Amino acid sequence: MKKFQYDSRSVVSNQQGIHENLTELVAKHLRSDYRKPIQTHNLEAYRQMQKAIADIAHEFLILDSCCGTGASSIHLANKYPDTLVIGIDQSYKRLNRRDDQVAIPENCILIRANCEDIWRLCERDSISFAKHFILYPNPWPKSEHFKRRWHGHPVFGLLPNLSCYTELRSNWKIYLDEFSLAWQTVSGQAYSVDELEVAEPMTLFEKKYHESGQKLYQFVADSSLRVT
């Protein structure tokens, strides 16, 4: 069988560096309370998550935000069999695009919900995760869409409270540079953005970008021992 080669374009943006309003926006969000009501379907998804945490034996919790088809969640569940991996994506269509021939491990659940509401509920109830992954989120590359990026969202300041280990991956370095600076603004801790060497792709996007020859980047905020 002929090997299929991906041809994926790099991110194109009218923004050439870190957005000039980044730190001002993050600081503004830290000074204010985000009061948007939790959506009903997100509350239901959170209760489903709570039940899984209570019912499924685990040593650690791993959160896989923006998990898409769940490929990364399944990868993590197989890699860390003593954990419960919780994959979250807002799109029912993406979650149901998963390859039916790939079984979901018993230590993995996939739920449809908006990440920002789940993050708020977890922070409220002091649910913490050994690892938190945000892999290849929508970059919103246009400068005028800056506030749609995760570090431009009012809930960004909660992220350091959710896990001692947070990992972000993207094929657009500016996104990670912004995320890193925003993280430092919130937590006072500086972490680097490094080029990622891909041994085994965790997501379909990672596979596509890697096979297209694009450079991939990684931000890791690790303030304690990692799960090994």
Overview of the molecule:
The structure is a single chain. The chain is an alpha/beta fold and 228 residues long. The chain has one domain (22-202, 215-222): Rossmann fold (3-Layer(aba) Sandwich), CATH 3.40.50.150. It is 33% helix and 17% strand. The chain is built from 8 helices and 7 strands, in the order H-H-E-H-E-H-E-H-E-H-E-H-E-H-E. It has helices at residues 22-31, 40-55, 71-79, 92-95, 115-124, 159-162, 173-187, 204-211, and strands at 60-65, 83-89, 108-112, 131-135, 165-170, 193-195, 217-222. It has a 7-stranded mixed sheet with strand order 3-2-1-4-5-7-6, sandwiched between helices. It is globular. Mean pLDDT is 92; it is low at 1-6.
Give the termini distance in whole angstroms. 37 Å
Name of the level-1 CATH class = Alpha Beta
Q: What is the typical, i.e. mean, pLDDT?
A: 92
The radius of gyration over CA amounts to 17 Å
Tell me the CATH superfamily.
Vaccinia Virus protein VP39
Q: What is the helix content?
A: 25-40%
Identify the strand order in the major beta sheet: 3-2-1-4-5-7-6
- When the domains are counted, the total is 1
Class of secondary structure makeup: alpha/beta
- Estimated share of beta-strand residues: 15-25%
Largest sheet: 7 strands, mixed
* Poorly predicted sequence stretches spanning 5 or more consecutive residues: 1-6
| Number of helical stretches of at least 4 residues | 8
CATH topology: Rossmann fold
Layout of secondary structure:
Blueprint: H1 22-31, H2 40-55, E1 60-65, H3 71-79, E2 83-89, H4 92-95, E3 108-112, H5 115-124, E4 131-135, H6 159-162, E5 165-170, H7 173-187, E6 193-195, H8 204-211, E7 217-222
Parallel strand pairs: 1-2, 1-4, 2-3, 4-5
Antiparallel strand pairs: 5-7, 6-7
Enzyme class: transferase
Protein name: tRNA (guanine(46)-N(7))-methyltransferase
Keywords: Methyltransferase, S-adenosyl-L-methionine, Transferase, tRNA processing
